[in-house]
Automatic annotation (TrEMBL):
It is found in: Cell inner membrane. Keywords: Cell inner membrane, Cell membrane, Membrane, Transmembrane, Transmembrane helix, Transport. The keyword Cell membrane applies. It holds the Pfam family Sulf_transp. InterPro entries: Sulf_transp_TsuA/YedE. The chain crosses the membrane at residues 12-30, 36-55, 75-94, 121-142, 154-175, 195-215, 263-280, 330-349, 361-378, 398-416. PANTHER family: INNER MEMBRANE PROTEIN YEDE, SULPHUR TRANSPORT DOMAIN-CONTAINING PROTEIN. This is Uncharacterized protein. It comes from Halanaerobium saccharolyticum. GO terms for cellular component: plasma membrane. Belongs to the TsuA/YedE (TC 9.B.102) family. It comes from the Bacteria. The keyword Ligase does not apply. It is a multi-pass membrane protein.
Length: 439
């Protein structure tokens, strides 16, 4: 078979056109502000990596629960560990120069980079995390996963994305009401280095990750022993091709290696860690996704005539008035969509997916609403309230992790077989198969 037969020329051409348009758009954004151009570039890399490795945060719970195979979960834990070590050095150096964690900044004090994700652990964190966990299972992905799935052509993600933005608005209102209530008194904000130093905080964080890694290994063994374990399988075209020294560099095998071969979860996790550190080093802030969703939600409600000037929405409304094109988070999120699309186009795998019915669409919408509401209640999603929080030594990240996981498992149990994205419970499926055989 010739190279031309193996490379999808139409999709390759489409990818090149998209890249050229993004170069042009990046120039325009950079002229407005260099930071916007940087947001575009980082978003493209995030999207490309997430799709090339089929890497997702929601899958850390869903995949191992459904299949018993924990390679994604373990890759996520390694990603956390690498990021924690890098952030320890960066923040320790800043603290040594007199910088302080963001929530303690007063006057002319300098902020320790990325400590904006150090937030209070409260009942709102737990409730928000649990609700978000349910939503991401119904929608088929978390905040970043919704963006990458949309870039891959899954129309269901457009539904989830819209309702994610809409659900963020009542979430903002609910979180504001919580913060003004007596319940807020039962909150605590803990930056681990304040109690254990940077070495101690790093060691404690890594030990907790090691415990989770061991639990993952144990669960895999349990699922194997009970006969409900599914090995990770790649599509044939995602697998590495056999290399031959006689092959020319300008060959299909080279193209396949660079643009089509699927990356492992571990490769994806390590590259995401590198990009996270890059974002912190270039912006002084951590990676977040859902604040932009909230701004989109405020923009939607504002366009419909709702009063968005109240204290719960003030900062988001101000950003909307300045124009979403000037919002780095918005640019980065949109770029994630395009980065994912480029990954699939270069691999010749892009296709629009409308494989769902009206009932499924209702579940996607509900999932989006729950994620939007939950993310604002918890002040973040799998990225901001989990990955960024834990990587920056905030106790609330661990609380969110527990709540999120419980919410996700709850949804996988309750909605098993009722949504096209959630298969039947493994025991129920086994029982039904046995009944069919005996019938």
């Amino acid at each position: 078979m010739s190279t031309g037969d193996k490379i999808n020329k139409k999709q390759l051409g489409a990818a090149l056109i998209v890249i050229l348009l993004l170069v042009f758009g990046g120039k325009i954004l950079s002229d407005i502000s260099p930071k916007l151009g940087l947001s575009l570039i980082t978003g493209l890399f995030f999207g490309y990596i997430l799709t090339r490795a089929r890497f997702g945060f929601a899958g850390g719970v869903k995949k191992i629960y459904i299949t018993g195979e924990g390679s994604l979960t373990k890759a996520l834990l390694v990603m956390f560990a690498v990021t924690i070590i890098a952030m320890a050095g960066l923040q320790w150096a800043a603290a040594a120069d007199g910088a302080v964690v963001k929530y303690l900044v007063e006057g002319d004090a300098v902020k320790i980079p990325a400590t904006g994700s150090v937030k209070s652990l409260s009942l709102a964190t737990i409730i928000g995390g649990f609700i978000f966990g349910i939503g991401m299972m119904l929608a088929g992905g978390c905040a970043s996963g919704t963006l990458t799935d949309l870039g891959e052509g899954a129309f269901r993600s457009a539904i989830a994305l819209l309702f994610f933005a809409v659900g963020s608005v009542p979430g903002l209102s609910a979180r504001y009401a919580f913060d003004q209530s007596a319940l807020a008194d039962f909150s605590t904000i803990v930056y681990l280095p304040h109690y254990f130093g940077y070495i101690g905080a790093t060691v404690i964080s890594l030990l907790l990750l090691l415990v989770l890694y061991m639990i993952t290994r144990k669960y895999e063994s349990f699922r194997r022993s009970e006969g409900h374990f599914e090995e990770l399988e790649y599509e044939e075209r995602d697998l590495p091709l056999e290399e031959d020294e006689a092959d020319s560099f300008f060959s299909f095998k080279t193209y396949h290696k660079f643009f089509m071969e699927r990356w492992s979860f571990m490769t994806g996790g390590l590259l995401i860690a590198v990009m996270f550190i890059f974002v912190v080093n270039t912006t002084g802030k951590d990676w977040g996704v859902t604040s932009a969703y909230a701004r989109w939600g405020v923009a939607i409600f504002d366009s419909l005539g709702f009063d968005m000037t109240g204290p719960a929405f003030a900062s988001y409304y101000e950003a909307v008035q300045q124009g979403l094109i000037n919002d780095g988070g918005t640019i980065r999120n949109i770029a994630i969509i395009f980065g994912s699309a480029i990954a699939f186009l270069l691999a010749g795998k892009f296709k629009f997916d409308f494989n769902f019915n009206l009932k499924d669409a209702g579940y996607y919408a509900l999932g989006g609403l729950l994620m939007g509401f939950g993310a604002r209640m918890a002040k973040g999603c799998n990225i901001g309230a989990l990955y960024s929080a834990i990587s920056n030594f905030s106790l609330n990240g661990w609380g969110f992790l527990i709540a999120l996981s419980l919410g996700g498992i709850f949804a996988l149990k309750v909605f098993a077989g009722k949504v096209n994205l959630i298969p039947a419970n493994r025991y129920q499926a086994e029982k039904e198969n046995a009944e069919q055989i005996s019938a």
